[in-house]
Design a protein that fits this description.
Layout: E1 4-6, E2 14-20, E3 22-25, E4 31-36, E5 47-57, E6 65-70, E7 73-81, E8 84-88, E9 93-96, E10 101-105, E11 110-116, E12 123-132, E13 143-147, E14 152-155, E15 158-164, E16 166-167, E17 170-171, E18 180-187, E19 191-196, E20 202-210, E21 212-214, E22 217-219, E23 223-228, E24 233-238, E25 242-249, E26 256-259, E27 262-264, H1 267-278
Antiparallel strand pairs: 1-26, 2-23, 3-4, 4-5, 5-12, 6-11, 7-10, 7-12, 8-9, 8-11, 10-13, 14-15, 15-18, 16-17, 18-25, 19-24, 20-23, 20-25, 21-22, 21-24, 26-27
Manganese (II) ion binds at residues 68, 70, 75, 112, 261.
């Protein structure tokens, strides 16, 4: 991906800015919707990347993403449908299914692959997000977490899963390094729900399925709705049913640069990361680690 300086000032107060998402090609000619970063919106709290993939019916292609490096970020994988197998240079090998969370913190360097395991004829649908690591963590060791069960709120017509952070008294077990929240919110037909929010955070919503009214604005897949700061709650409703990902966090004050799979601070660090990967340096591929393909 192009080099993107990940700098955009958080709004000083509540807004409702709708940004169309872009298209990006990933492995196997597979096209995804890229909601972050966009020219007008680089960050939402520490969230610096949001890809929405599918729903796509898996045919001949397994939709594999081969071995590639990361640094300076955590990758967050969340599926609505389908199945993937994660492998990384720490030796992790982890299958992920809908409702489960893979949270990989790259620190100074890691490499991983994702193999499509969705059975032929079934759907793959999900999101992958990146969280920028703050200065005191970005050169630290890599780690990988898998969480089978996440907390949430479930009542007729309303399902809220806390992917990251704390929401409405429920906390995700995922380890985070900067204050943030990530939710999967599902509403049935004619449902309405008010989400309590941390007013010091900035927030954004991506509808992934159906139609939702976000603070009165009708929204559907294909656009990111940026909500700004100073919102203590958000009301969402739906006539026909819908699903969305809500992300938020304390404004991330550090200047960050996104280049390919790296989140760094400047061009020199970006060149160094590329060089280290080309040389298969221990930073990304420790020779003591088991081979990953
Ligand atoms: Mn990756």
């Amino acid at each position: 991906m192009a080099r993107v300086p990940a700098r955009s000032a958080p709004a000083r107060g509540p807004v409702l800015d709708v940004t169309p998402v872009g298209a990006a090609r990933v492995a196997d000619g597979f096209t995804v919707r890229r909601a972050l970063p966009r020219r007008t919106r680089r960050l939402v709290g520490p969230w610096c990347f949001l890809d929405h993939f599918g729903p796509v019916r898996v045919s001949a292609s397994p939709l594999d993403v081969g071995l590639h490096p990361h640094c300076g970020l955590s990758t967050v994988t969340w599926l609505f449908d389908g199945q993937l197998l994660h492998r990384d240079t720490l030796g992790s090998e982890q299958r992920i299914r809908p409702g489960q969370l893979n949270w990989m913190t790259a620190g100074h360097g890691i490499a991983h692959s994702e193999h499509g395991e969705t059975p032929l004829g079934q759907q793959l649908h999900g999101v992958q997000l990146w969280v920028a690591l703050p200065e005191h963590e970005r050169r630290g060791p890599a780690s990988f977490e898998h969480h089978e069960v996440l907390p949430g709120l479930h009542r007729p017509g309303v399902d809220v899963t806390v992917i990251a952070g704390t929401h409405d008294g429920e906390s995700s077990p995922a380890t985070t390094q900067h204050p943030l929240v990530g939710l999967d919110v599902r509403l049935g037909p004619e449902a309405r729900h008010t989400l309590p929010l941390d007013a010091t955070f900035e927030h954004a919503v991506l509808v992934t399925e159906g139609h939702l009214d976000i603070d009165g604005r009708r929204s559907e897949p294909g656009s990111l709705v940026y909500l700004g700061t100073r919102r203590a709650h958000l009301t969402v409703s739906s006539e026909t049913g819908g699903r969305m990902i809500l992300i938020g966090g304390a404004p991330f004050e550090e200047a960050v640069l996104l280049g390919w799979n790296f989140v760094v601070r400047d061009e020199e660090e970006l060149r160094e990361a590329h060089r280290a990967w080309e040389e298969r340096a221990p930073r990304f591929l420790d020779p003591r680690s088991r081979s990953v393909t």
